[in-house]
């Protein structure tokens, strides 16, 4: 309707600026603003406007503005609910609806000459009547007559005609029949009101006097006017909708409109619509059919009989049939024009009735519209007209047999159901067909239905009898499609049999022996042809000579081509079972959408089980539902398949059904046979419990000879390829170099089969079947043989790949014979892994892994298909894994102790990674095999070798990370980060990962404490996080973030304490400012780190910071300690063991010497601050004062005393230190970074002894536990040892520093003690261990106090530095 308003707006604008009128000032106080008008107040405002309009003093402009204001209010309510005016605003006893209806009728009656007012009023009516149920009161008050009178008065105005037709469309309730038009829906229109509206129009038409034109003539006149207006198709469509609604079931109105030149207008609309392709052509044709239905003349030139269409009109009808959506109107019109006497000349009939496209389109329409009896009768009458001019080879008459038999079965089933259920009325065209002998108003609905079904049966039997009499070949087809059974069932359901039925049954029975003979002859001939074809294919494969049979490709194409019809329901399934009410199960397959099966049970327990005929692969399965069922309508349906009733577990599809659906496709284009299909209704709409299903439709495969031919072709191909594969395997066993020729042989064989498939096979499915057979028979046996090891333990493919890797390492590999060798190897491997002959069937793939967690069982065929597809790929990937493992083992043996081991290891990984991509591409299976090969080689390392490898790789990774951090502003190195970290990912899942994590977290701790946190560290840990089984690096980064948050809280706490102190002082602001020191206070930052994940050596402990630093630096540390203690108290931890802060030397600081800034460590800061009180500092004094090891102090002094350092160390005993004034003067105004190069302290000396001591502790714990328990199960022993390690004690007598260990570490120590003879397994119970030696394996427990680097200790904090006076001394400011 809003499309109509758009056209009206254009016409109003063209009529002289009527739409530009503004609201007069006199209306503004009454109306206010219409913006934001609520739905509840709209009627009130409309009422106020109506009061102004109906006042006698209102001018025309004011009335027009008021109508436009009402229109604006209504347009701002996009979807008003149905309302009847009940608002009272000074109207006395009259409601708003009655008042507005009276005003509208009065304006249209009295102001008929005012075109602008009439146009706006008609537009307002179209909007108003669509939103409020005031159509009947408006019509009874004379509104329809007023509208028609205004349209007649302004017959030449396109504006008024367009507005009038739009208003009439809403008044008669024709808006719902509009095709694709209208944005809003009009209010519901019941049949009683619609019939009343028709009677009002009929009374208007009959009230006209003789000699004067009827008011109804304005409707055809308006149609003619809008036809001549450019862009007036919307008006024409509205008028046709009105005409169709008025003539529907009302012969009197049809006669009155027919006398008003309506047939001529309809013919013109039909021709114009066909010529320009307008959508109103179908509406015009529908109106013509309604005139013919009432047996009225279709034109003035043919009074008393139908006006014929010329041959062009008939061809246009056929053009409509060529569309995908077949129209009932077209079928009825075509029947009328072809089957009525004298409609078309004999020459035109003979030309039309030999048209193949028209014949096939009629058969297609019979399939689509066959459920409607009237359409079946129309099509059968047209087909009988075609049969009048029968010629044997002119048309494919055999194709019409099966549709006719199907319609016969469907209508017989519908009749039985409708009469059995006592249907009392059916609407639609079925009861309005003009060909019924008895008028419908004198028949009860069941009798009428019986009459229609009887006539359908008579037409079908008559047509089939005529066809059988004319062609014996068609009788044979009738025997094949089951005409005898269908006709016998139909006769049982009808009391009166057609006169030709016995004759038809006799003809079909007599031809059954010929049908059997034809079937046997066809089978024999096809079998011989298939054997001939297979022999030629085998000869072609062996000799590579062209096939000499003429039209060989044409024969194969027709042999494998499917028929145009699929297998119907009754041939697809054996039986149907339901969860409840089994007596209603037959209604699911009766092809009648009016009947249904209703379940009885709880929600989710309803199912329908269909047992399929053996070998029938479903092409389409659909379910019929109806929105009329409301809460009984299914909402969620799951389709399952199984091989037996006990194995219905494989989910094939899940479908959500919308409330508007009527036919839902459940399955389509299945590629395997499922013996049992079960449809489970999981949920119904609106929370319903029971469900209703209107029907199940099953369409089977289209018949074809391809399965027979496919079986024979694949069997012979398999035998030929198997023999060829056996010969090649024998040659490879004798000489491995024959592998180099395997690519050429395989490629030639596969190209030969591909060429045959491209030239002769009809479709892709046939080619895929041949390809799978060749792959399974030729490639899979070859892959299995070349990947199986020879007696010397090396497979032929592994030997070839090793040679390829040796070739890769040689220089100038792309030159000469070596390049040809590499190319041959690459082509072979890519052929073996990249050629895909086709995977398993789609639903099998879904069952195998498409929906994890829903499939309870993997079907045997699906599992077999998946295994066969992946077996060759798995064999090649396993071979590549062995080759990689061998290469890595050789490298570890040769370069395990070289200084640049880690760099060489990464180069080896990149080399093998490149080789993997060259040979196999980006296949995930081979990238996984690469990692597994590296892991397998690393697992062969001894304990100490794995320890050394872990430390070397962790150190190399630390160096590279520092390089990346220095190049943080450059994008080049960062782009290589992921590629650089890839060699380390192979450690995940290995025992080596524990030692690698141990060393990595030491280097990570050094970087974080000296250089601070960085986003790069988080990215790296995320990339190689699988290499850290204990997740210590992740915990370190998380703890560092928590520590920084604690530092921020401490700063806020300091500010609060300072504010509190100032508040307690009763002094003014000026005094506070005078007493405040202007000295710079150093910034002190403390990091409180967890000992569980941070590795800190006890060598770095600082007992009391106040001994070494001034109060400016030490007092913030004390305050931080008090802050932590208070935090624990507030959290309720005072009853637990308080956490103690252990200070360390592992911080960093910034010192200022003049205008030079020095970046140093905490220990370096302490050394430099000593020069504030002395010009010379002895190294021995530093060692005695700090108590630190000499190597730690010398490590800190190295950057300070080098050639460019700021300190000079004398050669005297004790090593006195002095300031290097020259270096300090040169560094004036610069920043000097003097931090020592970080390294894991004493790594070289402690890497072996640390883990050896860890092993000794574990061995001691194992022996101590077994001494007490005597014997213990292995798993229990491992648990108790790990628990003791976490607690740091084993009873009151054995205490040590706690540490984390892995079950692999404990099992390794158990195997060591078993090999040493200290433990033994019990005979008969090998999982039970017992201790057999009294000699201790380790020092006494009192000596087991291993303070080693891999153990975690107390909390460490990094403090900041001291403050000194502003002079030429070192000053700490951060």
TrEMBL record:
Residues 1-20 form the signal peptide. Residues 948-1201 form the Cullin family profile domain. SMART domains: APC10 (SM01337), Cullin_Nedd8 (SM00884). SUPFAM superfamilies: ARM repeat, Cullin homology domain, Galactose-binding domain-like, Winged helix' DNA-binding domain. Residues 546-725 form the DOC domain. Keywords: Isopeptide bond, Signal, Ubl conjugation. Belongs to the cullin family. This is Cullin-9. It comes from Willisornis vidua.
């Amino acid at each position: 309707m809003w499309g109509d308003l758009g056209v009206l707006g254009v016409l109003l604008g063209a009529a002289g600026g009527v739409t530009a009128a503004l609201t007069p000032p006199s209306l503004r106080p009454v109306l206010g603003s219409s913006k934001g008008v609520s739905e509840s107040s709209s009627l009130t405002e409309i009422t106020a406007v109506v009061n102004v309009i109906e006042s006698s003093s209102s001018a025309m402009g004011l009335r027009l503005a008021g109508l436009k204001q009402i229109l604006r209010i209504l347009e701002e309510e996009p979807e008003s609910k149905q309302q009847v005016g009940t608002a009272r605003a000074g109207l006395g006893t009259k409601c708003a609806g009655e008042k507005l209806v009276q005003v509208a009728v009065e304006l249209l009656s009295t102001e008929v000459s005012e075109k602008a007012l009439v146009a706006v009023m008609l537009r307002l009516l179209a909007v108003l009547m669509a939103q409020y149920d005031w159509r009947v009161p408006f019509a009874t008050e004379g509104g329809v007559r007023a509208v028609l009178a205004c349209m007649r008065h302004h017959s030449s105005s396109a504006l008024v005609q367009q507005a009038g037709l739009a208003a009439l469309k809403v008044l008669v309730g024709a808006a719902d029949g509009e095709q694709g038009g209208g944005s809003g829906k009009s209010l519901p229109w019941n049949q009683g009101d619609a019939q009343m509206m028709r009677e009002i129009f009929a009374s208007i038409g009959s009230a006209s006097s003789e000699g004067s034109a009827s008011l109804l003539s304005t409707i055809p006149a308006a149609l003619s006017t809008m036809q001549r207006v450019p862009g007036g198709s919307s008006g024409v469509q509205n008028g046709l909708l009105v005409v169709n609604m008025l003539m529907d079931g009302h012969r009197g109105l049809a006669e009155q409109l027919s006398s008003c030149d309506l047939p001529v207008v309809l013919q013109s609309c039909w021709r114009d619509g066909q010529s320009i392709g307008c959508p109103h052509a179908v509406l015009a044709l529908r109106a013509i059919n309604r005139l013919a239905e009432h047996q009225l003349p279709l034109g003035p030139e043919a009074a008393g009989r139908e006006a014929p269409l010329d041959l062009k009109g008939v061809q246009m009808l056929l053009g409509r049939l060529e569309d995908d959506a077949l129209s009932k109107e077209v079928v009825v019109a075509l029947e009328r024009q072809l089957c009525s006497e004298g409609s078309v000349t004999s020459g035109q009939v003979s030309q039309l009735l030999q048209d193949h496209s028209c014949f096939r389109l009629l058969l297609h329409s019979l399939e689509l519209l066959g459920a409607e009896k009237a359409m079946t009768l129309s099509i059968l009458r047209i087909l009988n007209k075609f049969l009048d001019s029968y010629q044997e080879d002119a048309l494919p008459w055999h194709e019409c047999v099966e549709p006719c038999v199907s319609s016969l079965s469907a209508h017989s089933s519908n009749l039985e159901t409708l009469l059995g259920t006592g249907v009392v009325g059916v609407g639609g065209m079925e009861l309005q067909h003009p060909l019924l002998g008895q008028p419908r108003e004198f028949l009860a609905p069941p009798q009428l239905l019986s009459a229609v079904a009887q006539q359908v049966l008579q037409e079908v039997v008559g047509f089939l009898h005529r066809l059988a009499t004319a062609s014996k070949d068609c009788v044979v087809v009738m025997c094949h499609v089951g005409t005898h059974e269908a006709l016998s069932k139909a006769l049982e359901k009808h009391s009166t049999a057609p006169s030709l039925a016995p004759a038809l049954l006799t003809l079909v029975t007599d031809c059954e022996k010929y049908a059997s003979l034809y079937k046997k002859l066809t089978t024999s001939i096809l079998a011989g042809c298939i054997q001939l074809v297979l022999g030629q294919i085998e000869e072609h494969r062996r000799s590579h000579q062209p096939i000499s049979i003429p039209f060989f490709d044409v024969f194969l194409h027709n042999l494998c081509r499917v028929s145009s019809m699929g297998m119907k329901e009754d041939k697809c399934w054996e039986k149907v079972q339901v969860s409840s009410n089994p007596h209603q199960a037959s209604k699911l397959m009766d092809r009648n959408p009016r009947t249904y099966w209703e379940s009885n049970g709880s929600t989710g327990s309803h199912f329908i089980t269909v047992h399929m005929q053996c070998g029938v692969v479903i092409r389409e399965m659909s379910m019929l539902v109806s929105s009329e069922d409301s809460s009984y309508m299914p909402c969620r349906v799951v389709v399952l398949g199984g091989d037996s009733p006990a194995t219905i577990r494989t989910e094939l599809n899940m479908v959500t059904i919308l409330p508007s659906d009527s036919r839902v496709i459940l399955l389509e284009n299945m590629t395997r046979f499922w013996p049992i299909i079960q449809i489970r209704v999981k949920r119904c709409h609106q929370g319903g419990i029971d469900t209703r299903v209107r029907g199940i439709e099953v369409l089977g495969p289209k018949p074809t000879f391809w399965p027979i031919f496919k079986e024979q072709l694949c069997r012979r191909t398999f035998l030929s390829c198997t023999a060829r594969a056996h010969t090649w395997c024998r040659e490879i066993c004798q000489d491995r170099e024959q592998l180099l020729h395997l690519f050429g042989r395989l490629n030639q064989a596969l190209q030969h089969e591909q060429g045959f498939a491209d030239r002769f096979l009809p479709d892709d499915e046939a080619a895929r079947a041949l390809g799978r057979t060749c792959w399974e028979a030729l490639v899979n046996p070859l892959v299995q043989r070349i990947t199986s090891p020879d007696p010397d333990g090396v497979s032929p493919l592994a030997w070839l790949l090793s040679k390829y890797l040796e070739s890769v390492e040689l220089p100038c590999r792309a030159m000469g014979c070596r390049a040809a060798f590499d190319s041959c190897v690459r082509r072979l491997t890519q052929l073996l892994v990249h050629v895909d002959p086709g995977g398993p069937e789609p639903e099998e793939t879904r069952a195998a892994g498409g929906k994890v967690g829903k499939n309870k069982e993997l079907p045997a065929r699906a599992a077999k298909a998946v295994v066969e597809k992946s077996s060759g790929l798995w064999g090649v990937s396993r071979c590549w894994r062995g080759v990689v493992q061998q290469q890595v083992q050789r490298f570890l043996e040769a370069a395990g102790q070289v200084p640049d081991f880690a760099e060489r290891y990464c180069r080896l990984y990149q080399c093998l990674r490149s080789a993997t991509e060259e040979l196999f591409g980006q296949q995930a299976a081979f990238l996984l095999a690469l990692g597994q090969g590296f892991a397998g080689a690393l697992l062969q390392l001894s304990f100490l070798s794995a320890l050394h490898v872990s430390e070397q790789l962790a150190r190399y990774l630390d160096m590279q990370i520092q390089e990346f951090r220095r190049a943080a502003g450059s994008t080049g190195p960062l782009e290589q980060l992921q590629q650089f970290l890839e060699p380390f990912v192979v450690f995940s899942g290995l025992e080596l990962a524990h030692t690698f994590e141990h060393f990595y977290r030491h280097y990570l701790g050094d970087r974080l404490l000296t250089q601070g946190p960085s986003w790069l560290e988080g990215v790296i840990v995320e990339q190689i996080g699988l290499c850290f089984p204990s997740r210590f690096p992740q915990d370190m980064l998380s703890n560092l973030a928590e520590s920084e948050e604690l530092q921020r809280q401490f700063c806020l706490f300091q500010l609060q304490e300072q504010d509190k102190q100032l508040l307690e002082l009763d002094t003014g602001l000026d005094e506070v400012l005078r007493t405040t020191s202007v000295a710079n206070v150093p910034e002190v930052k403390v990091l409180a780190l967890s000992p569980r994940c941070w590795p800190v050596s006890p060598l770095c402990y600082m007992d009391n910071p106040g001994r070494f630093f001034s109060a400016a630096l030490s007092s913030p540390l004390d305050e931080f300690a008090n802050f932590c203690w208070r935090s624990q108290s507030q959290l309720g931890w005072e009853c637990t063991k308080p956490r103690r802060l252990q200070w360390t030397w592992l911080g960093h600081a910034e010192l200022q010497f003049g205008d030079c800034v020095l970046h140093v460590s905490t220990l370096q800061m302490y050394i430099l601050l000593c020069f504030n009180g002395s010009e010379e500092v002895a190294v021995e004094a530093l060692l005695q004062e700090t108590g630190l090891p000499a190597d730690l102090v010398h490590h800190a002094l190295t950057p300070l005393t080098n050639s460019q350092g700021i300190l000079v160390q004398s050669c005297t005993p004790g090593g006195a230190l002095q300031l290097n004034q020259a270096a300090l003067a040169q560094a004036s105004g610069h920043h000097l970074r003097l931090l020592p190069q970080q390294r894991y302290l004493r790594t070289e000396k402690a890497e072996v002894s640390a883990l050896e001591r860890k092993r000794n502790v574990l061995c001691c714990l194992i022996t101590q536990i077994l001494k007490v328990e005597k014997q213990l199960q292995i798993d229990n022993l491992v648990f108790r040892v790990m628990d003791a390690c976490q607690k740091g004690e084993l009873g009151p007598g054995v205490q040590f520093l706690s540490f984390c260990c892995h079950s692999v570490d404990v099992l390794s120590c158990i195997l060591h003690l078993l090999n040493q003879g200290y433990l033994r397994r019990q005979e008969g119970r090998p999982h039970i261990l017992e201790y057999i030696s009294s000699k201790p394996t380790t020092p006494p427990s009192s000596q087991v106090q291993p303070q080693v680097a891999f153990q975690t200790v107390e909390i460490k904090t990094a403090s900041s530095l001291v403050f000194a006076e502003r002079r030429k001394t070192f000053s700490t400011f951060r």
